[in-house]
């Protein structure tokens, strides 16, 4: 079956990408575009188009694919292929699996984008060969997922891995989930942007507004963050350190509860900043390990597939579950 | 094999108990005593004596046992039967398994007391029939354990389930582990006793000192706590509520990360106070569930085997792993 090919789609609220890959994770074709959210049907048609373009790029007909996988930003039912809630897309109960299946005539698997990306890192990236892995994905929010023996450990209700909402201080900052002091409320890109704005409002100087203007960004993207750090921006450094500190507490709590072999930190910020993002997180986490780890049996590291984590993970999902 | 009999020992720093039980958890004989810690060898001889007394109580010869299990208060190596660290016993590297095996000539299994008690509750108590369970054990410290498909989920290094050291507020009270703001630092019996003393020192009135004197206790035992609550003691109620609140945050974090079917809360305080101890914990935990649980698919409940959780759990350990 060395010639079996899969399509994988990383469907995000800002952009989407599709790849065609073999079962060893070799990318043979790809395509990406900005997500058009004018209606759910328009977005689904974009997904179809990206798969077709990636297949063309790989020189194959979509009907020859073994299966297609999609990672969607929300709660997807892996059995029915329905995306129940995807706030970043404005979706509610979209039958994505059924539509793709009818269009392409091949098996379809739909999963949560973060969980799918962690599957990708487990199959071909930072967690390859590790039987017990946890992913911490830092982006608009903070998501996560657990992997045991190469399969997602979904928990009793399919809700395991929601580590972004671990409370680290119940009197902490407000979280988009409506509670206070969740890890996400300290450490998401959105939370970091909030903290940057607050420091600037309080009179601190920062290059960040100028960088955002220069790059024509309405949000503090990871590329803006990288540039601000290169400019040795004090506000950026202070805000990033706070986020990293709380990600370290989160990772320490995960180790004490779940004792994984590897924690992979992914998402846009981690992809761009790499080890310099992860090092302080690792340092804080290790101070919280109840069982000391002098030999470094537990690895805390950044994702290595970069922009491909999600789309390649979706090909793994396709292979395993379509 | 309906007639196979097992011995199980719950070895604690204050007292120890042994039972003889069949594979369905029916207790046929028992014995218990205060733990003599004058030397490790004296304590081990007590363990031997308790097993012999329980066997006599059941009317069988110890040599007829299928296996013997022991839950010890510390880190035990399940393969070698060595108890590496058991601070409450003053033990370091005691070859308990080997000594018992030589004495009785039957297979021996040694485990951690809390994990063993959770196995007991899973086999015959509050978690019976649930495939994914977490135990939170409140005593001198706060311990825990994870169970999946009837087996302990030990994690990569055998350190999973150390939930007592989940940080809930890094600026919180000091924990015996040397860190700050761990769940244990708010919610163990020891931490509650610290809080009671602090309130009394600050001038609050409480019946607790008189109750301890009356019962000739140097510590605030769970029976003292129960009596204080019966007397509507304001200090006891305030301190208990704080402990329960933080156990609720802990349970909520466990649900968001691990998504178990049931969380069993055990140990002396839970055994004595039962549902009145657990109800406020459940209420707080449910406010933290990221995925709502309107149908109550997740149960948060108290252990039901009472004083037998540990010793019966040790018979389960014996049956499965000796």
Architecture overview:
Two copies of one chain form a homodimer. In chain A, 41% of the residues lie in helices and 21% in strands. By secondary structure, chain A is α/β, with parallel strands linked by helices. The first copy, chain A, has two domains: 5-119 and 308-321, ATPase, nucleotide binding domain (Nucleotidyltransferase, domain 5); 128-303, ATPase, nucleotide binding domain (Nucleotidyltransferase, domain 5), CATH 3.30.420.40. In chain A, the strands form three sheets. The first copy, chain A, has a five-stranded mixed sheet. Chain A has a five-stranded mixed sheet with strand order 11-10-9-12-13, with helices on both faces. The longest helix of chain A has 25 residues, at 234-258. The mean pLDDT of chain A is 95. The interface between A and B is large, with 41 and 41 residues.
Outline the fold blueprint:
The structure is a homodimer.
Chain A: E1 5-11, E2 15-22, E3 27-34, H1 40-58, E4 67-72, E5 75-76, E6 83-86, E7 91-94, H2 96-104, E8 108-112, H3 113-124, E9 132-138, E10 142-148, E11 151-152, H4 183-187, H5 189-201, H6 208-214, H7 222-230, H8 234-258, E12 262-266, H9 268-273, H10 275-288, E13 299-302, H11 309-321
Parallel strand pairs in A: 1-4, 4-8, 9-12, 12-13
Antiparallel strand pairs in A: 1-2, 2-3, 5-6, 6-7, 9-10, 10-11
* Count of folded domains of chain A: 2
From the 3D structure, determine the CATH topology of the largest domain in chain A: Nucleotidyltransferase, domain 5
| Low-confidence residue ranges of chain A | none
The total count of strands of chain A amounts to: 13
The top level CATH class name of the largest domain in chain A: Alpha Beta
Summarize the largest interface: chains and residue counts: A-B, 41 and 41 residues
List SSEs of chain A in N-to-C order: EEEHEEEEHEHEEEHHHHHEHHEH
Tally of DSSP helical segments of chain A:
11
Strand content of chain A: 15-25%
Oligomer: homodimer
Measured between the Cα atoms of the first and last residue of chain A, the distance is: 16 Å
Structural class of chain A: alpha/beta
